Amino acid sequence: MSSTPGLFPGRLGLAASRIPHADRHGLLWLEYGRLSVEDGTLRFVAAKSETLDAGDYAIPYQAVSMILLGPGTSITQDVLRLCARHGTLIAAVGEGGVKSYTAPPMGQGRSDVARVHAERWADPQKRLDTARRLYAWRFGRVLPHRDIETLRGIEGARIKESYRLLAQRFGIDWRGRRYDRNNPAAADLPNQAINHAATFVEAAADIAVAATGALPPLGFIHEDSSNAFTLDIADLWRIELTVPLAFGAVRAVLDGKADNIEREVRKRAAAEFRRYKLIPKMIERIKELFDVHDSGGDA
């Protein structure tokens, strides 16, 4: 840590060099650099990357909800201390948010999402209504059925047909969804690709759930999982994003344009998450699901 006294205008470029928020939710993406504290200010010394020019940047942490540390980043203990004091969450993530390596501690922010989430999950009628709302987003209309098992059955049939149609679109030989959790490598190429894509989209949902302060174990469609609600959110993009990502990667491998299915899916996912702004969209969906809206600040 430098012993240089206070930061004056223009000193180290910090006064003028502020990294803009990735979006209005207060998410800040950092990669390929070192994050430290200098004179009470978060300082990020960055190498040149696709998202940021090389330089010495000041982080306005008071206005940041969550710092996402991408590949090639390191931080000092002082960063953790400062962010914990001000309720700023920190998570280590893969490129584009395709992996979530940490469970961020709860900050000192708002609890409105968590409170509404718990209330609706605890009431059987509200829990079913919330599940029906999630299905309505996925199917484009509100289904009249009021039994969760019936809804799950309809979901299974629709997903099966969607897989078939998407496989036709990408020219892939599709023999059905098959997955052995004890031996995932035994699956055929399309199923391996779907497994990888689903893992990456779930990581993005992990980040969105943490950023909003929702409760991962309390799912409305999924049950008996420590990240059941994360799976509920990830599935909103299964047909729109997850399966097309997977089948596009399979097509690239079959055409000889790629040789590793996991690497190809990960590369495509990172690019698509950025282009599509997936995590911000997930955050908006979570807030909309619980009828919680911004009132001048971030969740």
TrEMBL record:
Belongs to the CRISPR-associated endonuclease Cas1 family. InterPro entries: Cas1 (IPR050646), CRISPR-assoc_Cas1 (IPR002729), CRISPR-assoc_Cas1_C (IPR042206), CRISPR-assoc_Cas1_ECOLI (IPR019851), CRISPR-assoc_Cas1_N (IPR042211). The keyword Hydrolase applies. Keywords: Antiviral defense, DNA-binding, Endonuclease, Hydrolase, Magnesium, Manganese, Metal-binding, Nuclease. Its cofactor is Mg(2+); Mn(2+). GO terms for biological process: defense response to virus; maintenance of CRISPR repeat elements. It comes from the Bacteria. It comes from Tepidimonas thermarum. This is CRISPR-associated endonuclease Cas1. GO terms for molecular function: DNA binding; DNA endonuclease activity; hydrolase activity; metal ion binding. CRISPR (clustered regularly interspaced short palindromic repeat), is an adaptive immune system that provides protection against mobile genetic elements (viruses, transposable elements and conjugative plasmids). CRISPR clusters contain spacers, sequences complementary to antecedent mobile elements, and target invading nucleic acids. CRISPR clusters are transcribed and processed into CRISPR RNA (crRNA). Acts as a dsDNA endonuclease. Involved in the integration of spacer DNA into the CRISPR cassette. Mn(2+) binds at E155, H222, D235. Homodimer, forms a heterotetramer with a Cas2 homodimer. Its EC number is 3.1.-.-. Gene3D superfamilies: CRISPR-associated endonuclease Cas1, C-terminal domain, CRISPR-associated endonuclease Cas1, N-terminal domain.
